Fold this protein.
Amino acid sequence: MKAKVIIIGAGMSGISAGKQLSDAGITDLLILEATDRIGGRIRKTEFAGMNIEMGANWVEGVAHEGEARNDDVNPIWSIVNNELGLTTFCSNYDNIASNTYNEDGTGLYDEDFVKRTIDEANEVQKKGNKISERPRSDDISVMAMQRFFEHTPYGPTKPVDMVIDYYMNDYEFAEPPRVTSVQSTHPLPTFVKFGENVYFVADQRGYESVVHYIAGQYLETDGLGAIVDPRLMLNKAVQEITYSEDCVTVKTEDGWLYEAEYVMVSVSLGVLQSNLITFSPPLPEWKTFSLYQFDMAVYTKIFLKFPKRFWPVGSGTEFFLYASSRRGYYPIWQHLEKEYPGCSILLVTITDDESRRIEQQSDEQTKAEAMEVLRKMFPDRDVPDATDIFVPRWWSDKFFRGSFSNWPIGVDSYEYDQIGKPVGRVHFTGEHTSEHYNGYVHGAYLAGKHSADILIDHAKREK
Ligand code: FAD
């Protein structure tokens, strides 16, 4: 089969690239997607009788109400809020200080004590923003920044300090401060550009309806909105990409060959770092060097359903922390009572090594660990066993190999740019190529548009 452009992957960036190409008159497209659905890392799944988000959940970077933002509105927020009217809730973390639990079974920490820890950490972050004004060669890790301004040679070591540190860093970047680059994250371009609020999408249509909405603008749909366009081919896992000066041939696992003038590879950084797709000839060293230097982080959202609620609800209770002496051990909890009253579901977030550890053990084992933590947090309550648990496994999944990219220390903007650069007729997109917003849904969306523009220019030059 032949097309002018083959897009590999139908996540947010691939679908957004297809729309930009179509808008420019390039409609001779073929989208090859390995799984049986579009949306990639934006994915709803049924859990305990309702739909929950196993991947992206928040629109990050939304202005405070009434704050003038002119053109600087997060494009995903415009679709979620204005076009689709998805149900969302602004996440408020202001009460973390009064919701931090001890690991020794004595309940909550003193609010003022935790507040002081948060204030101190905020001060260090603010000072870190100054480092970003220095030349790029002065970049340091977040942990080095903490040593510098906080005089803590090993970083935070006490349970409360560690969980606050985790909440301020790992909860956003899914990697610890010793890995993350200060200059690329302090301040965070997403919040500077679009605003500091984050909105939790809690809509039974799913966050993925944003991807369907964009796809529906250029792919044929049936009366019910399902995509029936033959240019979208599902269950087509690409195995090999052969490129020359004249054309590109793509081979899928089922043995089919597809030929095109250009290919747009939108698979995750984790997939590119694995050997799932063979490039022939192999990608040049400048390309693989840049791909291997960047990080694919792992962020895991574990959902637990209970026969009854035993945690506090009401204003200021949604997010709560478990301050363990083991950093990153079931640290950040959220109840979904605001979004779905009476659902009795808790969401606990873990990342990095803990995510990889948990992906390799049984869900029963994970449930037992989580239950032990909950019983330590609520020693005076009757805490029944969870009836259901859902543990996504993004890292083990060969079509993702992680959840989102994180900018590590040691990668400068020149090296970062190489990740998104085309190699001959092979173009690249994906959240990991977004100029300022890697790791986010809006990053994937904007990257798709940007990479498509580069391809369109390439095609124009060859006319
Ligand atoms: P993907 O969505 O990975 O799309 C790539 C597509 O390529 C996939 O559909 C995949 O199946 C396909 N593919 C892979 N290999 C092949 C192959 N060999 N052949 C054909 N197809 C292939 N972002 C936010 O903004 N807010 C959040 O709250 C948030 N939370 C997150 C939580 C989790 C757990 C995860 C996993 C991600 C989260 N993100 C969040 C990040 C966000 O989901 C991603 O940045 C974005 O969806 C990535 O889109 P993409 O198109 O770049 O990649």
User: Anything to note?
Assistant: The chain is about 30% helix and 20% strand.
